[in-house]
Write a structure and sequence with these properties.
427 residues; alpha/beta; Immunoglobulin-like; TIM Barrel; 2 domains; 8-stranded parallel barrel; 13 helices
């Protein structure tokens, strides 16, 4: 019997080891999720509770007016100056307000656009865009205060000596933020820093911190974001993470993390997108997809200047866009997705547009609208129960609540999580 046992013991050890190896491999092959991001299929974190107190049997209607989550798009310079055809301008404004609740300046705030020649600063385009967005309650991102990639820097800026350059950077930051104090929802502070940082190369590693200080001299409440590309593909994720840590360790007041959505090809890697969002979420800062095109910059539609798609390609693109939005909307860290153009007449990748040049909607546009205004939209009605209470789980946003012909507008915010209304007589 001892001999049998002695033979069994090593065999048992081998079995245990093999089992441990298999289990370890299984765990290692699982995606690593940051805290709070485990359940990708649930949208519970996008919803709060609306409770209406009425009389027993009263009909209650809950109508969503807009999302709290940013579904936005870039605004071209032409909207703040001369658009072209009056009919196109009218349609652009109409369709923008129909589809989006937030915006970003495509080029207007960029330093070369505002001051192509030294001392000749033109604020008119920015003023025009802000006037329209404020009239329509559209929060606007200022893209960007600085952009350190050398080929995008004006020649006259490069000709300055170091002292002159530092003083000019200070003046730029303070002037813009003071002029528009409280009017921009947020700014991209120093765009695409991991791809080129002329200012840091010239003036040292803490120049971005100084840029932030100068921006806050002009507007102490200005929200300053980082923004870079090739992050959601995974290619530059490690470098971006390291740079974010560097900025935070220096005390740069980073308000949020921007991740551009340009660089996927005709399709995208879903696992890489999820992994990148999980990784960025460890900083506990809001994340926005700041510059989104589907298809993207690496697709044939930009490289080969292909402006239209076959019906089959349109169908595939619509599916890709819907999947991209679903992944991002499901992630707790993400607070917005901003397209970089929605109409083929004003979009650097025309094939990625929601609307063709003649304003007919594309399959991509239909897929987008079905997601935001059907799948992720709360419109419901019912009757107050025995105790006169009507409760509904609803997406965070602005609502119109109606009981017996009387209506109130309310904001259901993620911060508070719930809203209670009393429609009973005398309340």
């Amino acid at each position: 019997m001892k001999k049998i046992i002695n033979h069994i013991r090593p065999l048992g050890g081998i079995i245990i080891c093999i089992t441990l190896i298999i289990l370890t491999g299984m765990f290692l092959n699982q995606p690593v999720h940051a805290q709070g991001s485990a359940d990708r299929n649930s949208l519970a974190h996008r919803k709060g509770t609306i409770t209406v107190k009425a009389r027993k049997g009263d009909k209650v209607t809950v109508e969503q007016l807009r999302h709290e989550f940013w579904f936005g798009c870039a605004i071209p310079n032409s909207l703040g100056s001369k658009f072209g055809q009056e009919s196109d301008e009218k349609m652009f404004k109409e369709k923008f307000l129909e589809n989006f609740n937030s915006a970003v300046t495509e080029n207007a705030v960029k330093w070369p656009s505002m001051e192509p020649r030294k001392g000749e600063v033109d604020y008119s385009v920015v003023d025009g865009i802000l006037k329209w967005t404020e009239e329509n309650n559209i929060p606007l991102r200022g893209h960007n205060l600085f952009w350190g990639i050398p080929r995008f820097i004006q020649a006259w800026v490069k000709e300055l000596n170091d002292d002159e350059l530092r003083e000019t950077l200070r003046k730029r930051a303070e002037t813009v933020t003071s002029r528009y104090k409280g009017r921009f929802a947020e700014y991209d502070l120093n765009n695409e820093m991991i791809h080129g940082n002329y200012y840091e190369d010239r003036l040292g590693p803490e120049i971005t911190k100084q840029m932030a200080q100068w921006a806050h001299n002009g507007d102490p409440e200005a929200k300053l974001w980082l923004n870079d590309y090739d992050i959601l593909t995974g290619n530059k994720l490690t470098e971006y993470m390291a740079y974010i840590r560097k900025m935070l360790s220096q005390g740069v007041p980073v308000a949020g993390i921007g991740a551009q959505g340009h660089l996927h090809s005709d399709t995208f890697d879903r696992k890489e997108l999820k992994r990148a969002l999980d990784s960025l979420s460890i900083f506990n800062l809001p994340v926005r997809i700041t510059e989104f095109n589907m298809p993207g910059q690496r697709s044939k539609y930009l490289k080969d200047k292909i402006f239209t798609m076959t019906p089959q390609e349109e169908e595939q693109n619509a599916k890709e866009l819907a999947d991209y939005y679903r992944i991002c909307f499901a992630h707790p860290a993400v607070e917005g997705i901003i397209m970089w153009g929605f109409w083929a007449g004003a979009n650097w990748i025309p094939a990625s547009s929601m609307y063709n040049r003649d304003w007919t909607i594309t399959r991509t546009g239909e897929a987008y609208k079905n997601l935001i205004f059907k799948e992720w939209w709360t419109n419901t009605s019912g009757n107050a129960g025995k105790k006169g209470i009507f409760t509904v789980q609803a997406f965070y946003g602005k609502y119109k609540i109606t009981v017996n012909g009387k209506s109130r507008e309310i904001n259901l915010s993620k911060e508070k999580g719930e809203v209670k209304l009393n429609f009973r007589k005398g309340s």
